[in-house]
Design a protein that fits this description.
The complex is a heterodimer of chains A (about 240) and B (about 260). The longest helix of chain A has 29 residues. Chain A is built from nine helices and six strands; from the N terminus they run βαββααααααααβββ. Chain A has a single domain, classed as Up-down Bundle (Fumarate Reductase Cytochrome B subunit). With about 240 residues, chain A is mainly alpha-helical. Chain B has about 260 residues and is of the alpha+beta class. Chain B folds into two domains: about 45 residues; about 200 residues, Oxidoreductase, molybdopterin-binding domain (Sulfite Oxidase, Chain A, domain 2). Chain B is about 25% helix and about 20% strand. The chains are: A mainly alpha (about 240), B alpha+beta (about 260). Chains A and B meet through strand 1, helix 1, helix 3, helix 7 and helix 8 of A and helix 1 and helix 2 of B.
Chain lengths: ~240, ~260
């Protein structure tokens, strides 16, 4: 029997989809800014493995000589990015959704098992609620990274007026490196996120738009708990 | 997203009907809002440039946003917020030269004939020699110079505090104005500063770098060092100083950059 199972609250879906284009614009305008002093690379033992960014990449995205434009976009959309994130965190705290999100003690051990499962090395996956252990860690990290971007961003933006923030980030120079590294972290997160969403399938994806999943349930597995809540024992993943 | 049960629905919807209904509402909203967002972005991206004035070169709505944002962040400005200073040993010996507009394009410039012109409120021009300036108390600063491009470098400068300069040359009436304007002798490079930023205790008119007289490429005979602003405001080779209640022209603000450019 088909049953509608509520998954993502309305606020969570809105903030998720609002964040997507805003973050894209922040990353793009950030690259317009970064280009003006593109000094970062991955260098080990004197060998440069990757320079951020190669010329073909700049040309492809029409990045060169747009610093002032990048700053203008960046300093407008930073408001939307921050407010949307702030609203999401506020909602998560007030609604109690954080309980589904924040890693538990066992999550760090379980996340390893989830990883082995996702890589098809291990068959079984630890029992989970809304999110599995790896998701709890990933989704909490991405929120903390967002907070980190705002803090390091402010430290670079007003290093004298917010000297204490700048100090907290290890100084102006390091703050810019952290700000950039966090951005690369988003890109990595995005790639893994997209792969996982594709693998999880339509039912999961739809739930981030319509809010529910459809689960197939045998009526006899529904039990009334003493408090009157309906508890079910289905195992939908993601 | 619950179906409103208050409307008296004769027959309760089946699970499939509920699913279809909710999917329809959600996906319609998703695509409509997505299109609105995309349209909004297209509009902003292709929005016209601002008319040329004190500022120029930015998209009109973006310039508005830039100015409003700066107004918000200016509330955090305080002359008591000081830029971090470092020991002299940390200062770079090879100080970066990034731009020399107003310096390298002035081939007729004769440093020995240079005099600073200060335009007073009464229209009179005060002429000051470098010796007059060097006679004032010297202030040194070793700080992290920050370029709008994103690089920073710890540098060591020395000169007279702008606020001391104003006091010693009895420019108190001029200090009541809202803005300070500075230009190179050939007027090819120019900056506008709010008085509060110019009067910041770490703003100096510098004539020395790394304990040596300033070199021409670093702005000799006299340049501005204003740590509460990006490098673009740190004008080299000051020719004229003006005071006004309107924003003076600013080279990079006319190229799409923020006028305030404060740190």
């Amino acid at each position: 029997m088909k049953v509608i199972k509520e998954k993502h609250p309305l606020v969570m879906r809105w903030t998720h989809w609002i964040n997507f284009p805003i973050l894209a614009i922040m990353i793009w305008s950030g690259m317009l800014i970064y280009w003006a002093n593109d000094v970062y690379s991955i260098t080990l033992f004197g060998h440069t493995f990757l320079h951020f960014f190669p010329d073909w990449f700049y040309k492809l995205l029409k990045i060169p000589f747009r610093l002032s434009e990048g700053m203008a976009f960046h300093f407008l959309f930073m408001w939307f990015f921050t407010l949307n994130g702030f609203f999401y965190i506020l909602y998560t705290i007030i609604s109690g959704e954080w309980r589904e999100l924040v890693p538990q003690k066992k999550s760090f051990k379980e996340a390893w098992l989830v990883l082995l499962h996702d890589l098809h090395i291990r068959k079984a996956i630890p029992p989970q609620n809304k999110y599995n252990a790896a998701q709890r860690i990933a989704y909490t990290s991405i929120i903390l990274m967002g907070l980190g971007s705002v803090v390091t961003g402010l430290a670079i933006y007003k290093p004298v007026q917010f000297y204490w923030l700048c100090w907290l980030c290890g100084g102006y120079h390091l703050a810019r490196i952290l700000h950039f590294t966090l951005t690369m972290g988003y890109v990595l997160f995005f790639i893994i996120h997209i792969v996982q969403v594709i693998l999880a399938g339509w039912n999961n994806f739809r739930s981030v738009i319509s809010g529910f999943e459809i689960v197939d349930e045998q009526p006899q597995t529904i039990q009334q708990t003493p408090s009157g809540n309906t508890s079910t024992t289905n195992n939908t993943i993601q | 997203m619950k179906n409103s049960e208050s409307k008296k629905i004769k027959k309760e919807l089946s699970v499939d009907q509920k699913i279809n209904r909710r999917n329809f509402i959600s996906f319609t909203t998703f695509f409509v809002m997505g299109s609105v967002a995309f349209g909004g972005w297209k509009w902003l991206y292709n929005s016209p440039l601002e008319p040329s004035g004190t500022t120029a070169g930015a998209h009109k709505p973006l310039r508005r946003a830039l100015s409003k944002t700066e107004l918000f962040f200016r509330r955090f400005y305080s002359k008591d917020h000081l830029v971090q200073t470092y020991p002299k040993s940390m200062a770079a010996s090879n100080v970066r030269v990034n731009s020399n507009i107003g310096v390298e394009d002035d081939t007729d410039f004769k440093p020995e004939e240079w005099q600073l012109s200060v335009m007073k409120n009464n229209g009179e021009a005060l002429k000051i020699s470098i010796d007059d300036i060097k006679a004032l108390p010297k202030t040194e600063i070793v700080f992290d110079f920050k370029c709008v491009e994103g690089w920073d470098q710890i540098q060591h400068w020395a000169g007279v505090k702008f606020s001391d300069f104003m006091t010693y040359f009895k420019l108190n009436d001029q200090a009541d104005k809202q803005y300070v304007g500075m230009k190179t002798p050939n007027e090819a490079y120019y900056v506008g500063l709010e008085m509060e930023g110019a009067m910041h205790p770490q703003t100096i008119l510098a004539y020395e770098m790394n304990d040596q007289p300033l070199k021409l490429e670093h702005g000799a005979p006299l340049r501005l060092i204003i740590p509460v602003k990006y490098g673009i405001k740190n004008l080299k080779r000051i020719g004229t100083i003006t005071f006004s209640n309107q924003r003076p022209p600013d080279y990079w603000a006319e190229q799409g950059y923020d006028y305030y450019s404060g740190l």
